[in-house]
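Hi U.,

Before I forget, here's the chain from the pilot set. I'm dumping it here mostly so it's searchable later in email.
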Amino acid sequence: MQEQVAVQTDVRPPLFSGSALRRLIIPLVIEQFLAMTIGMADTMMVTSVGEHAVSGVSLVDNISILLINIFSALATGGAVVAAQYLGSRDEPNACAAAKQLFYAIAALSTAMMAVCLLFREPILRLVFGTLDDDVMTAAMTYFLLTSISYPFLAVYNAGAALFRSMGNSKVSMFASLLMNIVNIGLNAVLIYGVGIGVAGAGFGTLASRLVGALLMTWLICQPHNPIHISGLFRPELQNQLVKKILRIGVPNGMENGMFQVGKLMVLGLVTPLGTSATAANAIANSVAAMVNVPGNAVSLSLITVVGQCMGAGDSRQAVGYTRKLMTIVYLSMGALSLSLFFAAGPVVSFFGLTPAAARMAVEVLRWCSVFTAVFWPMSFVLPNALRAAGDARFTMIVSMFSMWVFRVGFSYLLVPYIGLLGVWIAMFIDWVLRTAVFLFRFLRGRWKTKTVI
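Structure:
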């Protein structure tokens, strides 16, 4: 039977033309850049308040990323299921899966919002230990406002993932642009005009996510879309579809969640090094994230491309498109990494750090540029091809093992001797392990035997 399928796929026309891939990926690159600027706008605009504000916003963002990754994982599960149904030409089930995704992600994000609102101070102290009073005050204020925004962000993520699964990434790009305009505009008014500091950044983030959620909900309910939701406010539970979504979303969520927990533990090693180290780490992470924008965009596109290929029963095209897209990632990220290596100093100078913090940020960014160019794509882009095929459990096991043994373990070993740089070197070791294992898995082809629908 497998031989018959292989023969059939040899004569199938390409599922995605070159122009179709460009229409998918280019808006995703712009969207990812815009998504990065929301966090960077908050960080850069609160630098006028002081390093304690930068540190407070950064610490909360690390907790928020934990929850956002869980939302994104669930959205990815829904997008994989929807993309595979589209690939098999089963639009009714694709629409039904979209509706179940919206219900699940709204319920989960509301529960997480409630927990964070009730226990935000204990959470901050548990994760980061003893903080300077001014840093804690800033973090508490920002955490309150961003917690309220979690359900809105989750709904936006679900809608964006579904539009991407249709191959329509322009919708999420324009929505992200609108969110940035709202966020930066309110930040400017509230931070510089009204003068409410960190609270201004929090209100800007909250308002932008509310706008994004409302827009995405309205768009996904339009019946002309291949995937759309009818009767959103008439709840109905379809257990089999929910199970399919969770089969991808739960392992991916556990992977992302435990990954971020490990990062928070590592960050707990950074905060005792002082406010300068914490601020340098925050700025370096923000700048490094910009280099990852092309990789993140292609990673999202792999969900659509590989998902539809596997739904159509064509693993040959899934392999071909993955190799093509990985080549694009290496070329684009290689160029950006090279630029960052030489421009790290001028880039860091824009953030107004103290000389000590600036020196640390430049050092880790130059190290990061080298390892990003070589190992990051295989560590974080290639696994999405495996997930889109249904191989989420394997990626979860590898990622969690590598995170805890190498990144967390080596951080505890290295930080006492070389400070902030030790955290980053431990991260690079983690990337090397992931690259070796994920590349081996892809080349062996076991992921092709997985089923989702």
